[in-house]
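User: Please predict the structure of the protein below. I'd like the answer in structure-token form so I can feed it into my own downstream comparison script.

Assistant: Understood. Taking the following sequence of 72 residues as input:
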Amino acid sequence: MLNCKQMSEMGSIIIDGQVPWRLKMSVMMHLSMCQRCSRYMQQLKLTSEVLQQSRLEADEAEIDLAISHLRR
């Protein structure tokens, strides 16, 4: 089973879902028993979602700006 240090070091990889099933099972087991890591992973996931959304919004703003320049 993973320890807290390993969980924090692999947090981004785990959030991205790029882990083998065996590691995923170890992660799930650890999170079910460790409230701190569970909260950490929730915060990391939320941060990742917010960053992805802000990138999409920035891309949309750039597209709108480009279209407005083309219409001139």
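That's the full token string. The two ends are 61 Å apart (CA to CA).
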